[in-house]
Fold this sequence. Notes:
- It is a single chain.
- It contains one helix and ten strands.
- By secondary structure, the chain is mainly beta.
- It has a single domain (25-144), classed as Immunoglobulin-like (Sandwich).
- It has one helix at 2-20; strands at residues 29-37, 45-54, 60-66, 70-81, 84-89, 93-95, 99-102, 109-115, 124-131, 135-144.
- 19% of the residues are buried.
- The termini are far apart.
- The structure holds copper (II) ion.
Amino acid sequence: xxxxxxYLSTFALTLLAGAAAxxxxxxxxxxxxxxxxxxxxxxxxxxxxxxxxxxxSEPIALVSVTSDRAHRMELHTIVRxxxxxxxxxxxxxxxxxxxxxxxxxxxxxxxxIGLTEPFVAGQEVPLQLNxxxxxxVRVDFAVKPPTHMGGRSHSH
Length: 156
Ligand SMILES: [Cu+2]
């Protein structure tokens, strides 16, 4: 009974919030070139990249990623301290209104910490991308060779 009441009040609040302002929604997002770098021998961590485009007039943030391919998943950026580039965890990666964010080598990335098995080029890896407002999207990431640097480069 209490649970049901709780549910009803949450539902009412959601409706109110929806009426007050346009809720950022994942239906306005598109994902291009999702890829994961293949594992070099002995590598225990990995990184994934994707371009996220937002057609809405509200920004929306990626807040976490769920995968069974690593013991821990984080969102990272790269910060420079003098000549040293260091990875740093971030709480969220914002996709601007009517804009895009590129997760790419040297910048934002999805970090796999403690791989459960190596990434092999040619694999398709489904990841669950979790956005604010408890909205999730499943995106299939293509595993590229360990030497791949991203972008639209094709090998012929
Ligand atoms: Cu990282």
